Amino acid sequence: MIPASAFFILAALLFVLGVLAFFIKKDLLTQFMAVEVMLNAGNLAFLALAKTLGKADGQAIVLFVITVAAAEAVIGLAIIVLVFRQRKSIRTDDLKDLKG
Amino acid sequence: MAEYFWLIPLLPGASALALLLFGRRLSRTWVAWQASAAVFASVILSKAAFLHLARTSDGASGLSKTLLPWIASGSFSTSISFHLDELSAVMAVVVTGVGFLIHVYSAGYMAEDRNHSRYFAFLNLFTFFMLVLVMASDIVLMFVGWEGVGLCSYLLIGFWFERPAAAKAGMKAFIVNRIGDAAFIIGILIILASVGSASFAVINDAPRSGLLSAGLVTLVAILLFVGATGKSAQIPLYVWLPDAMEGPTPVSALIHAATMVTAGVYMVCRLSGLYAASVPASSVVAWVGGLTAVFAATMALVQNDVKRVLAYSTISQIGYMFIGCGVGAYAAGMFHLVTHAFFKSLLFLAAGSVIHALGGEQDMRRMGGLKKHLPVTFPVFLVGALAISGVPFLSGFFSKDAILTSAYAGGHYVLYGLGLAGAILTAFYMFRLIYMTFYGDERTPRAAENHIHESPWTMTVPLVILAVFSALVGLIGLPVFFGEKANLFGRFLEGVFGPAAHHLALSTETVLVLAATLSALLGIGLAFIFYRRSPDVPVRLADRFPGIYRLLLGKYYVDEAYDAVVVRPLVRGAELVYEHFDLKVIDGALDGSAAAAGLAGKGLNVLQSGLVRDYALAFLMGAILFLGFLLIGAP
């Protein structure tokens, strides 16, 4: 039996990995993937909690998150494609027109 | 019908309102007739009320009518109520009568003006306010009328506001009157504070009942008189009246000769109880009147604009009325007011007829020889000139004589002398005007000469009616040697002013009448020599005494002096305030707060780099801080 804390540690590692990837990488697509990693780290934490507390709430939230993530991925990828068509680049350092 | 006397002011008022609202949509003829008809109805009503009072004249209290409660504040209350006694009835008859004739005259004079309906609306409105002033039963409502006529005067002087001179003259009249009115308001406030009632009956009784101390009576009377010097164009506030001639001529006749400018005289007569109780205030009234009478007459001697001669003449004649009031002969002052209303409006309207005939020419140096072109205007003008000069048996003779006799009888010999000197000057400048305008060579430019024409009947008929009145109206106030009871006018007003104070020996009176007659004839004779027989005399005189001539022509440089002492320091002060306060303090505060907002924006601007990573970092830091706070703060 794997202890619950292992799930939490894995979730935390995944989340930190996502954060680091987001800040280290400079292209939009990879950063987007980092965001997906963070989302799934969150999902894993929810599932671990659902199991330790013996309630189904956490599983229900995970289903929601997966649905929302799918929709968000569609829109996010579409935006990235359109930005690339416009700018011939998806480097976030090039996309800084909205500065004060 | 007399009980409907309260409609006298309301009818022209209603007509004015209708014309202001719908005037543009009505036909020109309808506008003129509606305005005249409203005033004519008032004429009928005031005549009925006048006759009613004349029949029941036994010192009774007259007609009263309260329309609405108005101000109720603490122990003080006043209502909108009209009162018609002998004094206000005389004024009402004069205002409506002369006003009606001038409305009819205007129908011809203003027929071609673009803003015909606006003109008649203002004229009606003026009549309304003037009648409110006259018939008000308390001083607060009188003040409403007083300001109302001032407003109408402003509107009508500046009627042709597209001419800068007219717009300026209107403002000058309004501002100069404000100075007098400030004193007038203070006077009213002192009355309200110490007497506690605005009603004329109570105020006139205040010196006797002890509500006003002697010093306060003098103060109030003088403050109110300062208001009168503004409205009635006396020294030192007369400067607006000559400029007011920029308005249409019928307006000059109605407002700036016959009615509004005499409001000050009426006010003094209305409050005769107050003035009679204060010797110093009465002296101030008499002396200001006496000095103005001569001072203004000397300025009339050298003017070349027909209407300006008449304007200075009006100032001078109102001076006479104030002499009468100041020496206690209120009935004589009112009598001159009535006769003056007729002959001066006649002179103005006749001058208007001349100006109309010459297509707008007002300079007498470009007139002359008009006698044969204007067969109606010339004789009526002559009647008016003879009447104002005081030629025997015309109206001005009786009224001026009544004032001078009263001054003499009261022992005011210097004032009498001033009055007599003024009478010579009056006759002189009036006949100078006649000789320069109607006699001599024709100096009109050729182009104008071709269409010199007599005026239409709407203008000439009022002239003839006024001429008849100017000639005959004096007969209501015959001097004492036509019999003790010959002075109908004086006896009619005895209910208001009490019986006449002074009586002179018949022989003295005869001498005074002769002196007055001789001075009138002397003035006319001098004018004849100067401007008819040897026209080079005035030129030689002007060359001989260039200083005096320039001083008169420059109107004693009073306007310039006021400009230097009052107007320019005020304007300069306003400019200084503008430069140092408006520009620096007010604008500075506004600009400063705008700059502060801008600086703050620039400072915060650094945070917005446009880089997603920076925002995400801020987000992360925030999340960590929040979590840390939760974790540490939890226990």
Write the layout of secondary structure elements.
The complex is a heterodimer of chains A (about 100) and B (about 625).
Chain A: H1 4-24, H2 28-53, H3 57-87
Chain B: H1 7-22, H2 28-55, E1 63-73, E2 76-84, H3 86-109, H4 116-135, H5 139-157, H6 164-195, H7 200-209, H8 214-231, H9 240-243, H10 249-258, H11 263-270, H12 272-276, H13 279-300, H14 306-326, H15 330-357, H16 377-389, H17 395-409, H18 413-438, H19 446-449, H20 457-472, H21 488-497, H22 506-533, H23 536-544, H24 546-553, H25 558-605, H26 612-633
Antiparallel strand pairs in B: 1-2
Helix pairs in contact in B: 1-2, 1-4, 2-3, 2-4, 3-4, 3-10, 3-15, 3-20, 4-5, 5-6, 5-10, 6-8, 8-11, 8-13, 10-15, 11-15, 13-14, 13-18, 14-15, 14-17, 14-18, 15-16, 15-17, 15-20, 15-21, 16-18, 16-20, 17-18, 17-22, 18-22, 23-24
Brief overview, please?
The complex is a heterodimer of chains A (100) and B (635). With 100 residues, chain A is mainly α.
Describe the protein's architecture and organization.
The complex is a heterodimer of chains A (100) and B (635). Chain A is an all-alpha fold. Chain A has a single domain, classed as Helix Hairpins, CATH 1.10.287.3510. In chain A, 78% of the residues lie in helices and 0% in strands. In chain A, helix 1 runs antiparallel to helix 2 and helix 2 runs antiparallel to helix 3. Chain B is mostly helical. A two-stranded antiparallel sheet of chain B has the order 1-2. Chain B is globular. The N and C termini of chain B lie far apart (99 Å).
